Hints:
This protein is mostly helical. The chain has 5 helices and no strands. It starts with a helix and ends in a 5-residue tail after the last helix.
Amino acid sequence: MAILGYCAVLEGNPPSTAFIDTLAARTGYPAEAFNTLRHHSDIDIGHGDELFALIDHLPLNPANEAVIGTAALQTADLLIEAADELLQSLPGRT
């Protein structure tokens, strides 16, 4: 169940090409550093809808729903933490 929550966050909101370009420009990291993000921005379109439809059709009990929700929240929290660390690593940031 936990993997469903994790995937819901990652598949539900794939990064846009514009966002990835902005990350590359602001960090100064080479374009190759963003290959995985670029790949997912292309292939993940529609995956979120498919995953949410799957979850909607599963015979979930309240405990299952709690695990999915907790995993989704934890995943979102860790993504925010990773973004904060990235921003703090940029020159001129403290």
